[in-house]
Amino acid sequence: MSVTLTRNERQFANFISIIIFAFGVFLAAAGGNDPLSVHGFIIIAVGIAGFFFTADALYKPEPTEERLSYYYDEPIKAGVVLSMAWAVFAMFMGVWVASQLAWPNLAFEGAWSSFGRLRPVHTTGVIFGFGGNALIATSFHVVQRTSRARLPDQLSPWFVLVGYNLFCILAVTGYFIGITQSKEYAEPEWYADILLVIVWVTYFVLYLRTIARRKEPHIYVANWYYMAFILVVAILHVVNNIAIPVSLGHAKSYTAWAGVQDAMVQWWYGHNAVAFFLTAGFLGMLYYYLPVRAQRPIFSYRLSILSFWGITFFYMWAGSHHLHYTALPHWVQTLGMTFSVMLLVPSWASAGNALMTLNGAWGRVRDDATLRFIMIAAVFYGLSTFEGSFMAIRPVNALSHYTDWTVGHVHGGALGWVAMITFGAFYTLVPSLWRRERMYSAALVEVHFWLALAGTLVYVFAMWNSGIIQGLMWRTYTEEGSLAYSFLDSLVAMYPYYIARAFGGLLFLLGTIVGAYNIWMTIKAAPLAVPRKSDVPYSDAVAVPGE
Amino acid sequence: MNIDHESLVAFAKSWGLFYLIAFTICVLIYTFWPSNRKKFDKAKKSILDQGDEPWE
Ligand code: HEM
Predict the structure, then answer these.
(1) Is B33 within 8 Å of chain A by CB?
(2) pLDDT over threshold 90, residue B53
(3) pLDDT tens across A292-301, in order?
(4) Which residues contact A426 (CB under 8 A, 6 or more apart)?
(5) Across the A/B interface, how many CB contacts are shorter than 8 Å?
(6) Is residue A305 within a helix (H) or strand (E), and if so which, with residue range?
(7) By CB count within 10 A, which of A302, A384, B11, B12 is most buried?
């Protein structure tokens, strides 16, 4: 890694490590007995590691000018590996928390291992660890290829990647020891939030600089989605996390927002995190890796532009559907509901565009498990956006809210859409990045596909069933007008579904482990003698126009 | 000036709508502008071009 940096960049990296170290020392000292000091020490460790790593390379020979005639792929490789490592870890945590719901003793009476602490470890690990690293890695890949330009420097991509993973580690370790600001999907405290702002601004600037160097006059639509993802996440993150720490020596902070405004800001953030983190970025992936893997241009480029603007502008207003029947003014709820229903149009435009691109190439979808991952992702994207628009309708939400139906919806999106498209992208990307002819084992890709699909279906059906039963039990009245079931009755009814869900999750986890192993073995295999000329999978297929 | 709830609602319900309509019209014009067609066609095909090196 560090030998691909120029001497100036190594010096600067060295300097940054010292600053990180100093920041860690400050937190550790100011923290005293507060859990904050634990994070101070973690940051110190990262600073020291970075210092020695870069110092070691300081006087090694510089990379030659020849590097400029290649894309800069090293950070992408690291991102892919990190993403898969997070996936295995966080999905394991998911199976664990799912099992705790069926068998509460699995918390082993520890505070750190209680459901309330492990759940955010799971959600942060999959969304930010797995998803975020996948987005960063693929965005570096896509922006270089579609701009036909190399990243502008060697340091900032590493800063983004390392800084971002430090943020994830601070988040996850914090939950174990009880640090959280209790905002869903935004649990990390103020100092981690500040770190993320710096990292994220660097990321956006890096992306813009690469685009500015482009040799291709038109900016391909996948980049629009990635840029919307980066820009909007920056805005969301800053606004939702405005807070005042108790003191510089305390992890705890208090948010600037109060009461129902706080709830609205949180779900404006939360829903747009779904929209721009879990959707826009992954649509960027879809619009690049689908055509490349299928060797067919996207069905309609114009439709992709219309759905881009539709999604960016409708999603912004939809967050209040998370707050139906609350103190939030009625008209704001109605606004969110209306926009959520309208969202179905651009969402299905993207899903349909993807499926129409494959229309006429179904034989390839049948034979190529990687393409099948991408196709199933588009199907689940269509499914979960339909479901979401439906659940956002107030009377429907009266049934679904607080029940496992929401959890079913989330995982249709997260497993079926986000994870599937990521695996499809990785299986396309990995052989090309490491210049291998193909994945280590096509059979294992196939195994992974079926485990992932089976796991998703078991999971989602279990939660749909349990959610609707739950919702109905809570609203069944006796003839005397009292509730027919106690909460405990509904809990007992959930038991078989919780077991089924844990099993579905286990299947999905096994698939991910198989995928990680396959990727690892591909990396270790012998490289091709002749460098590959493109990202295109090895096949004799020719490009066929889609429209 | 005292901005109360009612006036905010009125603003959101009227100008919010016009803003979205204007915005939609702009997007539609850009998407269907005849001379953009060639650019879009080229864009969607060019990512399939072979070659895995940056252009000089
Ligand atoms: C048109 C698109 C979508 C709409 C309108 C929509 C709507 C909704 C609604 C109404 C809820 C339930 C809120 C509640 O009752 O508390 C929800 C929850 C959720 N959705 Fe979606 N959804 C959409 C797409 C997606 C996608 C693609 C994902 C990807 C993973 C996703 C992830 C989530 C998550 C994580 C939650 C749980 C939030 C929580 O923790 O309470 N949604 N969505």
Answers:
(1) no
(2) no
(3) 999 999 999 9
(4) A80, A83, A84, A134, A515, A519
(5) 84
(6) helix A301-315
(7) A384
Q: How far apart are CA B35 and CA B42, in angstroms?
A: 12
What does each C-alpha distance from A396 to A11, A264, A390, A405, A483 come to in angstroms?
58, 20, 7, 11, 20
Q: What is the pTM of this model?
A: 0.94
Terminus-to-terminus CA distance in chain B, angstroms? 59
Rounded to the nearest 5°, which phi and psi values hold at A243?
A: -155, 160
Q: Is the dihedral angle over the CA atoms A87, A92, A95, A100 positive or is it negative?
A: negative
Cα A410 to ligand 1 centroid, rounded to whole Å: 6
Q: Which two tokens stand for residue A382?
A: 């269509």
Query: Which of B23, B31, B51 faces A305 most closely, judged by CB atoms?
Result: B31
How far is Cα B49 from Cα A485, in angstroms, rounded to an integer?
Answer: 63
Q: Check residue A479 and give its pLDDT.
A: 95
Contacting residues of A for B30, CB less than 8 Å apart: 305
Q: Which residues of B touch A313 (CB under 8 A)?
A: 20, 23
Structure tokens at B7: 């006036």
Chain-chain contact of B55 with A149 (C-beta, under 8 angstroms): yes
**Best mutation site among A322, A420, A464, A468 for ligand 1, i.e. most ligand atoms within 8 A of its Cβ?**
A322
Q: Where does residue A17 rank: exposed (0-12), middle (13-18), buried (19+ CB within 10 A)?
A: buried
Q: For residue A4, give the DSSP letter.
A: G
pLDDT by residue (tens digit) across A106-158? 999 999 999 999 999 999 999 999 999 999 999 999 999 999 999 999 999 99
**Could B32 and A335 be called an inter-chain contact, meaning their C-beta atoms sit closer than 8 Å?**
no
What confidence tens digit (pLDDT) does each residue in A466-476 have?
999 999 999 99
Counting every residue written for chain B, the total comes to: 56
What average pLDDT does the segment B29-41 reach?
94
Q: Are A152 and A120 in contact (CB under 8 A)?
A: no
Nearest CB partner across the interface for B54, out of A150, A292, A532 = A150
Interface test with B, best of A305, A338, A547 (most B CBs within 10 A): A305
Cβ atoms of residues A12 and A155 within 8 Å:
yes
Distance from CA of A103 to the nearest CA of B (A): 49
Is A536 within 8 Å of B28 when comparing Cβ atoms?
no
